[in-house]
Amino acid sequence: MTRRSYHRASESERREDLINATLDCIAEFGIQGATVRQIATRAGVTGGLIRHYFDSKDQMIQAAYRQIMENMLEPALTAADQDLPARRRLCDFIVANLTPPVTDVKMLSLWAVFIGQIRIDPAIAAIHRENYLVFLNKLEDLISCFFRERGEVIDSERCRQDAIALNGLIDGLWLEGTLAADMFRECELAQTALTSVERLLGLRPGELSA
């Protein structure tokens, strides 16, 4: 394990470095195997400095999981918030979830490590729930805006059900594609998702995927 070179950094930069070092150590040793000393070495700081930013290892683990979830959500949320027609924003949101950097093997590995903690760590479960709701609410909003743009109004219950189904579709394709990326052509998963969403929402072929 290599030590990062020391450099003067701001408080926020130092905290971000510690979170990234925590993720590196978790990827290499797992949650139980990643010690505060290893994290300090990876970040190029002392254990005492870590305690300035985090009260405990558990707090560092929670911050690291929050960072992973934000890294997974940010590209799609950014795509969805563009000043574009609703059809384009929904399409871009779906594609962003199934292309790099979201479809990254290291991100998948870290997600898999953390997902096992949800049933035993209430803090990790709360972070997971919070980010799931952000994702689901954004999907509901995109679906509602898309149909409104088409001159249709769908009730909130249908919108919620469609969002849950779309989330499951995206999750499944993301997991499959990231585990076996070499089995798929470039952008094949994103295109598959778009055509599947058309069927799920009862759209014309090509309405999203064209």
Automatic annotation (TrEMBL):
Domain HTH tetR-type: 12-72
Superkingdom assignment: Bacteria
InterPro entries noted in UniProt: BetI_C, DNA-bd_HTH_TetR-type_CS, Homeodomain-like_sf, HTH-type_TetR-like_transc_reg, HTH_TetR, Tet_transcr_reg_TetR-rel_C_sf
PROSITE patterns: HTH_TETR_1 (PS01081), HTH_TETR_2 (PS50977)
Keywords, sorted A to Z: DNA-binding, Repressor, Transcription, Transcription regulation
Pfam families, per database record: TetR_C_6, TetR_N
Record carries keyword Nucleus: no
DNA-binding region: 35-54
PANTHER family documented for this protein: HTH-TYPE TRANSCRIPTIONAL REGULATOR RUTR, TRANSCRIPTIONAL REGULATOR-RELATED
Full protein name: TetR family transcriptional regulator C-terminal domain-containing protein
